[in-house]
Amino acid sequence: MRQDGYMVGPLNQNGLSSNCILCHITAPAExxxxxxxxxxxxxxxxxxxxxPVYRELLAxxxxxxxxxxxxxxxxxxxxxxxxxxxxxxxxxxxxxSAMYRPFWTRDLLxxxxxxxxxVTCIVQLxxxxxxxxGTSAPSFILPEINTLLKEYDEISIELDGxxxxxxxxxxxxxxxILKMSRDTxxxxxxxxxxxxLRIKEIGRxxxxxxxxNNGGEWERITHEDDCACGSDHVENxxxxxxxxxxxxxxxxxxxxxxxxxxxxxERTSDPRATWGEPY
Length: 279
Prior knowledge:
Number of helices: 6
Shape: globular
Radius of gyration: 22 Å
Low-confidence stretches: 111-116
Strand content: 25-35%
Oligomer: single chain
């Protein structure tokens, strides 16, 4: 094993806690070179062309820096800050990586470009990506969400960023629950085609279907429109469990009919985030 590391963060505010550091070793460079033997930087830190995991991490979307001008030149930074050990001069970013201008779908000027059946009664929950990427056990008893489903036909849990699944330039923008009948729902992800600076299409990725029994528990059922990927999509129910707690604790605040917003989340969209803008 070349490296054994764990992802921690974000560290932008306070840095890494001193409790996480076991020791700090300093020595003359000659001693370290002698100890390293035949190991070198290129072996310890392989190039993206040699390390598929590193390559996928570098392919994640770029985020617009919020304080960059809306009228002049825009600036973007990696959504996941990773060290790069070699210089790669690239004058034009390829379309396989999204240059994401923060937006909420409710603010896009052309909702008719969305694919999928129209839903007349929808509630939107605007959340931070940290809620999506949190860690928790899946939950199939969701009384707060069940209450929303009595009033709304669709629950849209939208994130303030794009989720990269290795299908660039296709990304996820959140998770949805579509009421199929009184006690049957479909749980799916919202997909977005976002090459470069362009927002091309938004629709629903295939999901899985569930029946809500008399006790309020969600039970998996088979359906002809089920996703055929073979996964049980358990991560969606991990997220739903966190959303359930956030609704109960008031971390997701009721703002107006059809809208809940997570505390501390910016509600406004970037004015340049529009359909089909050329890149």
